[in-house]
Design goal:
- The complex is a heterodimer of chains A (about 300) and B (about 450).
- Helix content of chain A is about 35%, strand content about 30%.
- The mean pLDDT of chain A is about 85.
- Chain A contains ten helices and 14 strands.
- In chain A, the strands form three sheets. In chain A, strands 6-7-8-3-9-10 form a six-stranded mixed beta sheet, with helices on both faces. A four-stranded antiparallel beta sheet of chain A has the order 2-1-4-5, with helices on one face.
- Chain B has a four-stranded mixed beta sheet, covered by helices on one side. In chain B, strands 5-6 form a two-stranded antiparallel sheet.
- Chain B is elongated, with a radius of gyration of 32 Å.
- Classes of the chains: A alpha/beta (about 300), B alpha/beta (about 450).
Chain lengths: ~300, ~450
Amino acid sequence: MNQDILHIRQVSKKYVNHLALNNVSISVPENSIFGLLGPNGAGKTTLIRIINQITGPDTGEIIFQNEKLQPIHLAKIGYLPEERGLYKKMKVGEQALYLSQLKGLSRQDALKSLKYWFEKFELKEWWNHKVEELSKGMQQKVQFIITVIHKPQLLIFDEPFSGFDPINVNLLKEEILSLQKQGATIIFSTHNMASVEELCDHIALINKSEKILDGRVKEIKNTYKSNTFGIEFTNARLPLVSILQPGYDIINYHADDELHKADIKIPAGISPNKLLEVLIPHVELHAFNEVLPTMNDIFIRTVTHAAASLS
Amino acid sequence: MRPLLCRKPSNPFVMNKIILIIQREYLTRVKKRSFIVMTILGPLLMASLMIVPIYLATVSDKTHVIQVVDETGIFFNKFRDADKIKFKYVLQDINVAKEALQSSGDYAVLYIPKTEIAIPENAIIYSDKQPSLTIKEYISNTMQKEIEKMKMKASGLDETILQSIKANVKLSTIKLEAGGEEKRSYTEVSMVLGMFAGIMIYFFIFLFGSQVMRGVIEEKTSRIVEVIISSVKPFQLMMGKIIGVALVGLTQFLLWVVLTFAIVTVFKTSFPDKFSLQNSEQKMISSSQLVPATDSTTPKADEMPETQKIMEAIASVDFGVMIAAFIFYFLFGYLLYAALFAAIGSAVDNEADTQQFMLPVTIPLIFAIVMAQYVINNPDGPLSFWLSIIPLTSPIIMIIRIPFGVPFTDLALSVVLLILGFFACTWLAGKIYRTGILMYGKKVDYKELWKWISYKG
């Protein structure tokens, strides 16, 4: 965890009248699950294509495993693009073999690995069928297999869950976590924040061609936390407003029959124990927890903040 | 395949991948049902084009018996039997002969009526069918000779003098070779050969160029392209596809040649009589046209039968140069256009959108084919020269010019320019391709293409 597998250093990429990436620097720690976040058109896909050497940066450099990124590294990188597909008229096995060999595997090695994965994903009997005969879910499994077949040290998934059905999403998540256990580093590019919370330990947020935020998910959440605590209680002898001292704000309040729920923001520097002391004489507490900002909140806040500071 | 790679140890990884791509492109196409059908149908069609006319000719040609009713008595035994014509002299009244014709099964009745003047100049053929041109010419030639002879005799000329003053002009063309060697040249054969080769190249460029284009569109619409170009460079994918399809084209062409040859040979050996008949019939036609049988002089070297002339004409073409040139122009013409077709395929989202870009690419090809007739009539004119030098038209026009004999400097210039043109087109196409294949849902115009070409990296 203490070493970085990938350094992106001051990378810029310009298309004729559009700046896709502006001086972006990101470091991806070894063995992490790294979320590359940003709204559509922010430059995520361009950055991923640069890492995959589909296109080159105008300025800046990419360091992969302490070496300047070069074509031989492609054998160590697995990429599942957002726009993905297979040759429809080609047989499944033949095609998987072809794509594995393109990744640099020998025919024998490819056959051996494919056999393992096809058995694992219950695709064995489809080996000699044409791709167009497969269901969408099965095609996605094949695509996943050819992404990981060459045991890459760095895996890049561009919007991996779009188009996958819920069962396959779970399968995919499990496989991704097990790949991480085996030592792989995973980069996710997505604007689906829920999956980020669940899987990623690091993120970088890109907006309008620039990186506006990066770091460990826990640290980022801590920086963005606002001293807000959620409480659930019954039997309030006084209204909540009159219990609380000035400086304590009720952000959300919701009463459901007996059970009352509220989010309370306390002034900076005050311990949550103070809040408890104030509450305990007047209510029967059922739950007390710190409300951390969701990645979605942080995402929206940073993006709108960036937009505001621009204008 | 692996030992091959050892020659390029500098980058076996890249080479290996290009070979993989070529293999896939080749095998998927060769295994297609349409390829197999085309491979079988092509030679069948070509072989039947050769065999059917011969077969039909032999089937319909019986020996024709012509009854001669000669009231003058001058032509008795003057009509010589030829291969397909037999003459029968009958001493009947013409009306009786006419009526008996149908029941006798003979072909026609030749009636030479008695005339007031000593030498008759009229004859009538009675037949229930339209008599063939060959027969009519044969009869009128024979009669003319006979009458000429009689007239000469009447005016006191000797037949030998007549023979000696008869002029028979035969125009032979002799091409002067560089080494001072003389060679007979045959314009007609050059025309046919050049035109055939030109049309073949035109056809193959279109057929296999558009296969490349469709392949690119398929990869783009099925969205597999980004998966592949994360393993190989877009340029490698493009070249792999172009070379793979080129090999498919060569395979198809080779199979066509071999299979056509095989079918014709099998037919020849199983029906040898049909082919010998064909030859004798041709001899008959030629001899009847050029030297009527009554003329007993031995034919001079120039008057050899037509078949032999064709054989010699074909032999006169320098097939080494022709075949080498055909393969070169076929290959590089295809490569140049295939790169452009690949670029078109990459710029569009589906085949329907290709129209606007197809036009400028196909215009030079169509122009070349339209100009082919002019080039044949004037193979050394300035227009022919320029069209055979400019890379976009040279694959077709130069191959048309070659059978007529092309100066070495022209050929060298054309070859060098075509190779340079191929590199230029491939470079240009590669630039468009690499941006185009990743561009979806965008209406692309020429301005946009220009932007893609000017992208760096």
